[in-house]
Amino acid sequence: MSGVILRTQVEQALADLIDHEDGSRFQSLGVILATQKCDKLVAHEKKADLGLDGYAPGGEFPDGRGRGVACSLTATLSKVKGDIEEAQNEFKDLGVLYFVTPNQVGEKRKRKVERWVQEVKRQYGVTLIVMSREHVITALLSPGNAALCANHLYIHVDIPPAIEETLEATRQAIADVNASWKARVEGEPLIELSANRLSSQGQETAAVVELAEFEDLLLQGLRMTMEAPAGRGKTTTLTHIAERRAAAGTLAFLIHLPAWAQGAADILEFIAGMEPFRTRSIDATMLGRLYRSQPVIFLLNGWNEIAESDLERATTGLANLARDYRSAGMLVATRVRQVTPPCRAPQAARG
Fold first, then answer.
1. 249 Cβ partners below 8 Å, 6+ apart?
2. Domain of life, per the record (predicted)?
């Protein structure tokens, strides 16, 4: 990227976000910033967060304490306490909370934060980590977060001509991949699929997720599993999402999981090896530059088709994908299988 993002631009963008009370947009941004501190955090849906905007279970940490993130335009201790009290009803192992806000935490910030940390520890046994205005601004000024400024704060970032050429070639390659996938499901109706959201215990709920909501959740950077029997339209749905998002400017990569699992290389290396990308001389380094400047989603099909000998490698590969490409959405389509892909229940849906 040739443009340099100025502190004044970030400050003004955050001020506009606060003035418009756009908590939903800040939630998406705040969760990504928190995952840069704790890469095991996975975003929750905005309308079903159960007190947390993202969560990682204690089993993933040596101390057995779950991690959570709560984002808010309201920088008050009562807001923090309310989120913890709601979250502890669902997430019994919650031991660390990242609280992210674009506002300052009081005039004497350091002293107030220390008081918050002590009171939260005493009352709830939770370690509070406050990421307030200065932390948010400093993080967003990092060159690696330029895409966040562009996509979440609407700060214009110039793209050099060479990157623009790569972007156009990549979109053409994506269109070729989409056309190939579409040919596989030719004759099957492009239905507006809906699914039942699962609870955090994996039980089916009455809440319905429509196709447009799938897309919105993916753009927020969520990781989701779409589970359904054969013939329910999983592949068709992935193709439909890829086509719609490509038309909207998103880089939507369709991945055949059994093929990737055989080597489980870095996902961008695998994509660069596909014929439509290889013949256009698009390599993983070029795709990595685009990832930092464009909205990206990964649509992965066929978890249930992965050979047993490749399953451990595939599980590690998906975990690495979620860790290394934190701002990208991820949707895994599968039939029912005893070993589930590493996408947690709050992001799962059953067709």
1. 294, 295
2. Bacteria
Predicted TM-score (pTM) above 0.70: no
Measured on CA atoms in the order 127, 132, 135, 140, is the torsion positive or negative?
A: positive
- Structure-block tokens of residue 330: 């991820």
One pLDDT digit (tens) per residue for the chain, 351 residues: 445 678 899 999 999 999 998 888 899 899 989 988 898 888 876 655 578 998 999 998 999 999 999 999 999 999 999 999 999 998 999 999 999 999 988 655 557 888 899 999 999 999 999 999 989 998 888 877 877 888 888 887 766 667 788 989 999 999 999 999 988 776 665 455 555 454 444 455 555 556 666 777 787 777 888 877 777 778 888 888 898 888 888 899 999 999 998 876 788 999 999 999 999 999 999 998 888 778 899 999 988 888 888 888 888 888 888 888 877 888 888 887 666 666 543 344 444
Whose tokens are 């009803």? That residue is 89
Compute the half-sphere exposure of residue 345: CA atoms within 13 Å on the CB side of its CA.
12
d(CA 284, CA 83): 40
Residue 170 structure tokens: 């990549």
Which residues does 323 contact at the CB level (< 8 Å), separation at least 6?
39, 40
CA distances 196 to 144, 193, 209, Å, are: 36, 11, 6
The phi and psi torsions of 206 (rounded to 5 degrees) equal: -85, -10
